[in-house]
Amino acid sequence: MTAHLSLGWPAPAKLNLFLHVNGRRADGYHELQTLFQFIDYCDYLDFKLMDGAALKLHSNLGGVVADNDNLILRAAKSLQQATGYPGGAEIWLDKRLPMGGGLGGGSSDAATTLVALNALWDTGLSNAELAEIGLKLGADVPVFINGLAAFAEGVGERLQPVFPPQSWYLVLVPDVHVSTQAVFQDPALPRATPKLDIDTLMNSSWSNDCQKLVAEKYPQVAKALAWLVEYAPSRMTGTGACVFGEFEQAQQAHAALAKLPPDLQGFVAQGMNSSPLLARLAQL
Ligand SMILES: C[C@@](CO)(OP(=O)(O)O)[C@H](O)COP(=O)(O)OP(=O)(O)OC[C@H]1O[C@@H](n2ccc(N)nc2=O)[C@H](O)[C@@H]1O
Ligand SMILES: Nc1ncnc2c1ncn2[C@@H]1O[C@H](COP(=O)(O)OP(=O)(O)O)[C@@H](O)[C@H]1O
């Protein structure tokens, strides 16, 4: 086989436009109701198909991300195992998304790897089969594979497409790492929000059940929210630490960004109900 290069596969970030914790299951995982929307702020992956089963990852973060725990290598290996495909790949990651901030970058990288290699290796799995493999890598992987904004239930794997406004967001990235596991283990986390039907939820005002706890524990998150809320309705995504303010016009989000004090970091992005990954796949 001649080495074949395929460039520019996006792995977008997601926002949880709302996140409700409805209960704890016997296995310790939490039942959620959440609304996922993508934003046009992405990591990018390139793939070179190789003879032989070896998988190799390079990244602009050096060795930090290129070890065997990386979700990209784990995703590629899972696809080889599920399909018996004998070939391998060399993968380049251009990491732009902050890690561990509730933007889902690791899960998105895994999903892009599964979708891209399934197409490039011609292994022919359906999206449902890829999502089943992906769910073992992270609760958020299936929504990135499906590529449609979704109302999610269960631990995030039962998905229904929805069409929230594709607002402009100013996303702030507090300089602190919040552990998802620690948030879910905290006795102070409210975990009894009643389950509501999708129509009621889509038409209610949106909130995040993890936000109060995380803002109390991490002053950097509280500070980012306190600044942002002066400009727009604002919330935390996932289990934090990132927070976002919601604007109708790009120009309003950029105007707020221009006033950001030097000790806060942020970026502007637009909400997308269809992932840029789907658009890239359609180019093949
Ligand atoms: C809650 C969300 C919302 O998007 O938060 P973010 O990670 O994006 O902030 C995600 O579903 C998270 O997904 P992900 O980050 O893949 O979580 P995992 O690695 O599967 O789980 C990390 C740990 O969090 C806890 N956990 C996670 C998800 C869940 N529904 N209930 C849990 O109790 C478990 O203790 C688990 O060991
Ligand atoms: N390709 C990857 N990109 C980012 N993080 C990764 C990757 N592979 C594994 N990880 C691990 O997953 C953790 C969660 O990353 P990420 O998905 O960015 O955050 P979150 O789940 O809060 O949205 C990171 O702290 C890192 O240890």
Automatic annotation (TrEMBL):
GO biological process, one term: isopentenyl diphosphate biosynthetic process, methylerythritol 4-phosphate pathway
One MF term in the entry's GO annotations: 4-(cytidine 5'-diphospho)-2-C-methyl-D-erythritol kinase activity
Catalytic activity: 4-CDP-2-C-methyl-D-erythritol + ATP = 4-CDP-2-C-methyl-D-erythritol 2-phosphate + ADP + H(+)
Positions bound to ATP: P98, M99, G100, G101, G102, L103, G104, G105, G106, S107, S108
Pfam family, one: GHMP_kinases_N
This protein's UniProt keywords: ATP-binding, Isoprene biosynthesis, Kinase, Nucleotide-binding, Transferase
Bilayer-crossing regions: none
Enzyme Commission code(s) on record: 2.7.1.148
Tree of life domain: Bacteria
Pathway: Isoprenoid biosynthesis; isopentenyl diphosphate biosynthesis via DXP pathway; isopentenyl diphosphate from 1-deoxy-D-xylulose 5-phosphate: step 3/6
Residues annotated as the enzyme's active site: K14, D140
Domain GHMP kinase C-terminal span(s) in chain numbering: 200-260
Domain GHMP kinase N-terminal: residue ranges: 70-147
Claim: Transferase is one of the keywords in the record: yes
Function of the protein: Catalyzes the phosphorylation of the position 2 hydroxy group of 4-diphosphocytidyl-2C-methyl-D-erythritol.
Similarity comment: family membership: Belongs to the GHMP kinase family. IspE subfamily.
Protein name (record): 4-diphosphocytidyl-2-C-methyl-D-erythritol kinase
Native source species: Shewanella salipaludis
Gene name per UniProt: ispE
